[in-house]
Structure formats: C-alpha cells, structure tokens
Amino acid sequence: MTIFQNGxxxxxxxxxxxKFLLAKWLSNPKVLEFYEGRDNPFDIxxxxxxxxxxxxxxxxxxxxxxxxxxxxxxxxxLDEETQKAYGYTTENVYGxxxxxxxxxxxxxxxxxxxxxxxxxxxxxxxxxxxxxxDPQTRNKRAIRCYEKCGFKKVMLLPKNxxxxxxxxxxxxxxxxx
Length: 177
Known about the structure:
- Keywords: Antibiotic resistance, Transferase.
- By secondary structure, the protein is an alpha+beta fold.
- The protein is built from six helices and eight strands; from the N terminus they run E-E-H-H-H-E-E-H-E-H-E-H-E-E.
- The protein has one domain (2-127): Gcn5-related N-acetyltransferase (GNAT) (Aminopeptidase, 3-Layer(aba) Sandwich), CATH 3.40.630.30.
- Helix content is 28%, strand content 35%.
C-alpha cells in the first residue's frame, strides 16, 4: 500500500517479504555506523522481533526510488510522556526515523527528497503540527539534510542513545508548521 509518492520516490507500507531487505541493510557496517551501530547487526529473527510487532503505533515503510527498494522510514505520533520530556503540550507531534540502505543511493539528494516529502505528508495529510527527530550530533551528513528540509535544532539531548558501547549526544530537531 502506497503511503505517498513524489516523482521517482515512493514510500509504501512494510510487507512481510521486506524482512530480507532489512536484514541485508541492517547487517551492512556502512549503514550501521549511524543507525543501530556496527556492533548491533540484525538477522532475520531480530528483524521480525523489532519491525513486525502488531501492537506498536509506528507506521513502518519501505522507500523506493525508480522502482528500486532503497531504504526504510518509520513515523509515529509521540506519546504524552515523550512530548512532556521534549517540552511539548498537547500538540499533534510526530517523530520519524529513516535510512537509505542501498549505499549506491547515498549523496544523490534522495535523502533530502525523502525527508521533505515525508514532512509534507505528515503536515498536510496527517495534520502534524511538528515533526521531530533526534540524530546523533556526530551525524553531520544527516543533520545537513534535515536542515535543508527546514528542521531546526531545538535541544541538545546529552548521552541520549547507546551506540557501539558509548552513549552519544543527540540533537532534538523539529520542523514546525
């Protein structure tokens, strides 16, 4: 089922067969350097456990470009506890995470197209008032991409994410309508 499309870019709901793509991408050290960690590769069992839970509220999707499956994106409404921790009230705030798993598609502007298209979908179709993400401060390429898409740094989250055995600082970034 297609969630949204923008030219050559298409985002569709995750299907059972996609577990093999996720296992391929999430066992690649280049992808894991910034997503999950190189010391934390995924096999099929871990993919099924982490990505195919019926009870969570995340919308999990595969990213296609020119008909090729190249990445992953998920989005979700922030729960009340997380909204409070970030200083939000009862607004309609969504979070998102994504990666391009096919390294050959890096540095071609596709990430920027994906993030800007996702923001447009969330703000126009889902009526999100804000979209937030929390990239690691050392992930300069991703942060540049997000800033090109209109995100602003709003809060440093010290030692927010365990990554390769060390807690990493992250930025809380937001896109506000």
